[in-house]
Amino acid sequence: GNAVSYGPFRKGQAPGGIGPSEDEILEDLLIISKHWNLIRVYNSDKDTENILSVIRKNNIPIKVMLGVWLEKEADSSKTQLNVTNVLKGIELANKYEDLLAAVSVGNETQVFWSWHKMNIDKLIRYIRVVRNNVKVPVTCADDYNFWNKPESKKVAEEVDFIVTHIYPLWNGKTLETANSWMEEMYIDIQDHHPEKYIAIGETGWATTYNPEKDGPGEQGSLIKGEVSLKAQEKYLIELNEWINEKQVTTFLFEAFDEPWKGGGEETSPNEVEKHWGVFYEDRTPKESFTGFLKHIQNK
Questions:
Q1: Is 142 in contact with 110 (CB distance < 8 Å)?
Q2: Which is the most buried residue in 3, 42, 90, 214, by most CB within 10 A?
Q3: By the 8 A CB rule, do 100 and 66 touch?
Q4: What count of other Cβ atoms lies within 10 Å of the Cβ of residue 206?
Q5: What is the helix, strand, coil percentage profile of the chain, to 5?
Q6: Of 279, 286, 282, which is closest to residue 11 (Cα–Cα)?
Q7: Residue pLDDT, tens place only, 159-184
């Protein structure tokens, strides 16, 4: 049941810019493989191809849920970008079929708050193109607040299984109510889609945030629970117990802190998007993860 989201970008690196070297990717994957055997990546590009190549060349025991990133098609350049990503996804899915668990087409493109919300029929067309050209299962990832809506049934009909994101922290929950609320949301999606297997594609607990960044949709207004290393450790312990009990494939968000997120160097170092990892950006484990590992070893 335990899986993890993997963004390979270190300080000074970002998607579409400077990417990690093969040696850096290998270092990451050897760390990850000690704790997880299933990872999620978010786009089909040169960096993801390098990840797959390193796994194959080094016989690392990790399977991958490949992503195909889709943008809102506000102009022809975005459409071309989407087509490029879809074609690359198909290419990688066929070249590395033995390494893949699934292909996820689109990420949070339908939930009402998405900054890259796209037309649902366009999303479905891309899903169909991928399904018609690969042999592995195909899915679509979105927030629980899309999958619990009637319109989500159109997308659910097109995929082999559902991937949902459920973040207690972003939804104003405290540690005391986090797991029970997540399970409630999960069951609600099951009720909406009883014919589909449902995996949790993202959940986690950040270790730092900016409480002064407030307003609609901002971290300072939405987050009510404690944000700290101690809080992350407690969440990891309780999440692990839930996964083991329910046997639900769940991707922890995420393996490593990613400094490029949340505006990169242009924003405050305590921007929440930079601090969801259970390892620091320098690849040392956070005290929360070390404490979690000691807890499960002592059980």
A1: yes
A2: 3
A3: yes
A4: 26
A5: 45, 15, 40
A6: 282
A7: 999 999 999 999 999 999 999 999 99
**One-letter identity of residue 206:** A
Strands of the chain, DSSP E: 2-5, 38-40, 63-68, 100-107, 138-143, 161-165, 198-203, 250-252
Task: Please enumerate in sequence order all residues whose Cβ is within 8 A of that of 173, keeping only pairs 6 or more positions apart, or say none.
Answer: 181, 224, 225
> What residue type is 176 in one-letter code?
E
Q: What angle do CA 202, 105, 27 make, to 5 degrees?
A: 55
- The answer to whether 153 and 124 are in contact (CB under 8 A) is no
Q: Which of 59, 53, 41 is CA-nearest to residue 4? A: 41
162 vs 36: CA distance, rounded Å: 21
pLDDT in tens, 125-162: 999 999 999 999 999 999 999 999 999 999 999 999 99
Q: Within its chain, how far is the Cα of 197 from the centroid?
A: 17
> What's the rounded Cα separation, in Å, for the pair 245 and 182?
14
Q: How far apart are the first and last CA of the chain?
A: 18
Amino acid identity, position 138: V
Give me the sign of the Cα torsion angle 47, 118, 252, 96: negative
What is the residue whose two structure tokens read 């956070």?
A: 286
Which 3 state secondary structure label does DSSP give 162?
Answer: strand
